[in-house]
Amino acid sequence: MWKILLVEDEPFVRRSIRQSIRWEEHGFSITGEATHGQEALELMDRLQPDIVITDIFMPYMDGLELIQAARAKGFEGSFIMLTCAGEFEYARLALEYGASSYILKLSMSDEELLQALNKARAKLMKRVEQQDRLEDQLFREAAGYMWRSLWGKELHQDETDKFEDFRRRAANSPGLLLISVLGGTRMLSKADLPSLLPAEAGQAARCHLFRYMGQSTFWVWLERSPALRPEVFIYDGLPAVRRLGSAADAGLGAWRMNLEVLGRYYYGCARGENGVTAEADTAPVHPLPVPWEQEREIIGRFERLDVGDCAAKLEQLWQFMAAVRMPMAAVKETAERLDKLFARIAGKPAEPPGALLDAVRHPELLEQTVARMRTYAKGLGGQRPQETDHPEINTMIRYLLHHYDEDISLQAMAQYVNMDENYLSGLFKKKTGETFINYLQHIRVNEARFYLEQTDLTVAEIGERVGFANPSYFFKIFKRWTKLTPNEYRQQCKGKAGTEPPAP
The Response regulatory domain covers which part of the protein (predicted)? Predict the structure, then answer.
């Protein structure tokens, strides 16, 4: 229902307008009346009307002054001007100030009034749609940043600034309810909201939806702040949880708690029954990260095409993640990262990650990860890295490609191939065109590029995974070969391709 404020100093005219049409049947409601502009301006602060129907000539403050004063205070509603014959210059000025239309009082018909109202409503709806698109865009960006911050990912200053801007916009909302559903491949939409919203929540002022990694979370901005306890329930066969959030942090803390509850269903540790509240009240777990040693063993088995052992190592890793109750998002991120590594080692394009990210059970994700690993490994038995015409140098190259993340020296490699160190140094450069250390650094930097482009691992973690002894040395070597720091390289890649989680 669109709210109308009627401003007219003549009681007869106000009464005539009020009785002219059946307002509610046309979607309008007169919520207030004023006899002059000053009184109207005070009522506008309290009533927040959508449309103001106002006379031009009134005592104390006329209609033109009312428009200007209201716009100066940030009022974005529509004005319909009432004027008499001979006042067309004032009506023209009113249109310049932003009025949507004007009506001649003496000859005003019901049809003219409805036409003016519908025109004002169309203008308002267009503005609302524009505001909704802007809010959705701000929300999509902010939700992506919140998602990353939940799991300890680094935010750059511009990302932090955008999130803070969204948080400030949200801080004045009377109430915020977060509803999270573990839907997997099921694409929930805002059409599901009425069935998810408890009656005690009252009217929703607006709603945003974020879908990623099999979960869908609704941010429901309420017109009041109800007394609601956190609740776990089942929605159309899907586990769901809802709780009030703090507008001060844009619901970040409540979202973390909701995801922890859904994580229990992911691990099969909870049964869904409507009305259960205890599980939703439990503080979130802060587990250990995936040990690099376990990932390295998995990658090593795949590089050697020991598919059976690789699958066994994956199962061990999944058992570890379940034991420490790693957050569902971190598990799926690990699965996606390993999947991309398998594809890269195999020299094949990575399959779309959707099936992995949408998994709703821990064993299901392991099964899919193993199956995709086996698919990548098919047909690789006869492949060899690019080699030279010297067998010992080829042996060294294969060793470097499999062990670049370890502490490797030319002296150790000379012992490995049973050759003199000085002679090997010259021979390696002659056969490859690069010194031994440059060749090794190239491998490490190329691997670092992959991690920077395809994962959210911290720069320090990436440096360790590709064999650099400390972060400062990693920064130095990476910049030497790319002319960019690791962080600059990652930002450049984001600018080109966009790596935020998918928008709703």
Answer: 3-120
Q: What is the CATH number of domain 391-497?
A: 1.10.10.60
**CA 187 to CA 306: how far, in whole Å?**
38
Write out the DSSP string of 101-137.
Answer: EEEESTT--HHHHHHHHHHHHHHHHHHHHHHHHHHHH
- Strands in 28-34's sheet, in edge-to-edge order, are 28-34, 2-7, 51-55, 78-83, 101-104
Number of H helices and number of E strands within the chain?
A: 20, 10
Give residue-wise pLDDT tens across range 286-316. 556 788 889 989 998 898 888 899 999 999 9
For 139, the token pair is: 């929300």
Q: Which two tokens stand for residue 448?
A: 């670092």
* Whether residue 277 has pLDDT greater than 50: no
The DSSP code for 25 is G
Residues 29, 32, 35, 41: is their CA dihedral positive or negative?
Answer: negative
Say what the pLDDT of residue 148 is. 85
β-pairing verdict for 204-212 and 175-182: unpaired
- Least confident range of 109-123, 369-383, 488-502: 488-502
Helix axes 292-303, 307-323, angle to 10 degrees: 160
* Residues 160-197 pLDDT 10s: 888 888 888 777 778 899 999 999 999 899 899 999 98
Give pLDDT, residue 221. Answer: 86
Domain ranges within the chain, ordered by starting residue = 2-127, 171-281, 292-377, 391-497
> CA 2, CA 16: separation in Å to the nearest integer?
20
For the chain, percent of residues with pLDDT exceeding 70: 92
**Residue 290: its pLDDT value, please?**
81
Q: How far apart are CA 217 and CA 200, in angstroms?
A: 19
What local confidence, expressed as pLDDT, does residue 504 receive? Answer: 42
Distance CA 64, CA 43 (A): 17
Tokens of 426: 């010259």
Selection from 340, 236, 234 nearest residue 295 by Cα: 340
Identify the helix (H) or strand (E) that includes residue 240: strand 238-245
Can you read off the two tokens belonging to residue 122? 């169309």
Neighbour count for residue 189 (Cβ, 10 Å):
11
Q: How many residues can be counted in the chain?
A: 504
Fold for the domain defined by 2-127: Rossmann fold (3.40.50)
If one compares 139 and 414, the residue with the highest pLDDT of the two is 414
Assign 278 a pLDDT band (cuts: 50, 70, 90).
Answer: very low
What span, in angstroms and rounded, lies between the C-alpha atoms of 431 and 491?
36
Strand 215-222 versus strand 204-212 pairing type: antiparallel
| Radius of gyration over every alpha carbon of the chain, rounded to an integer in angstroms | 32
pLDDT value at position 42? Answer: 92
